[in-house]
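Running this now, will post back.
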Amino acid sequence: MLKLYLVFVGPWVLQSLVVTAQGPSEGNTTNVTVRVGIVLSERTSNHRYDFDILSPAIHLAFAEAARRYNIHYQVHYGVSETECSRSEAVGKATDLIFNDHVQLIVGPACSQDVEAVGYLLNYYKVPWITGGGTLLETTGTFLYLSRFSYNTYTQWQFFIRIMQRYNWTNVAIVYNRDDDYTVANSRFVVVQLDNKKFVQFMDSAVRLGFADSGEYAFFVIDPLQDNIVRDDGSVNQRALAGISVTALEALQVISLKMMESPEWKAFAALMAQKYRQDTSNANDAKKFEVNYFVGCFYDAVLMYSKNLRQFIDDGGNISDTRSIVKKIWNSTFRGVTGDVYIDDEGDRNDDYVLWDYSSQEEQFKVATEYYGAGSRYVYLRHLIWGNGRLAAPVNKPVCGYSGDECKKLWPRLPELDSTLIQINEVERGT
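Update: finished.
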């Protein structure tokens, strides 16, 4: 979970901190007005995508876009009172297009809603930006979408780079199912289970001797650091109650690189203050936390505004929606969530880290950093494998994954033994 940095200064100073970190006004003179529609849900399963969580950041970005780029937004709302819903998202987007003639849509956030709305906006050629939709592997199908959150595709790119480093070619993926877990023909296991099943799985690996053999590698993806490892590297004992040190020593964790820049700290402090001002119910304190997606939506609005400003200044027309979108793609923007790089298909290539457990320090330590802007890897420390081994597991054991390849030699061992005896007798001259 993201850290919440508290800065004890007045609200006018907090606003100034965010503005200063983002850069001064660029002196644009042409006033550009954009009709924008917001498509979000009031309630989502984990509240991170809720309209009242994201809305303050989106409106803060609208105000900053006016100050910095002279881009002014006329806001129209397509907010659903239900939880994530494909039909609601499509209906709200359709209303915004036909009734309000919007030129940009912000949202949706839920992955299933993003997928549903995408085909509609392809047809009507409306640009849209989102800080959600993380479960969609790629958004290349959607010609007018720019996604500013992490996604599963870039997570696997990072993992593939790790496999290449150690010359691994076979990998097993274990995910939530009701049947028994089986791992065959691989020594490298990516475990994607809920917390309870994950602990059970790793306990089984310890009991069977896999975890401390040094011949297996176990990986888990914990993008927001709310299941396995905390921001400071400590183990999430609440989520992993009962897990053994042996299991942790065999585990490597892939997560997003946490935001620690002055821009993020100032932004998080300002948003926390806004939440306190807008929320009177103390029971909602846990819900109103400044999370990763809040920053992503904020950066999405500003990066779109910056590129629209440049496009207009270069003689472009706001009705040329495809060209506006292409202006955003394959470009980089310094935002509160770090260096935001949107690739040539409209997807963010985010920053990740690989954590490795240190039994001496009793916490996880960052071993590798990956920076999406430039696809740059920084190796900070050697990984420690099961039972303290420094050598990485080999892709395929000498005797094969099940040991059968060595067993095939057993019938010929007497014959081989007899041949060796004859050779020794010849060498001795007997």
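Confidence is low (pLDDT under 50) at residues 1-24, 415-427. More later if anyone needs it.
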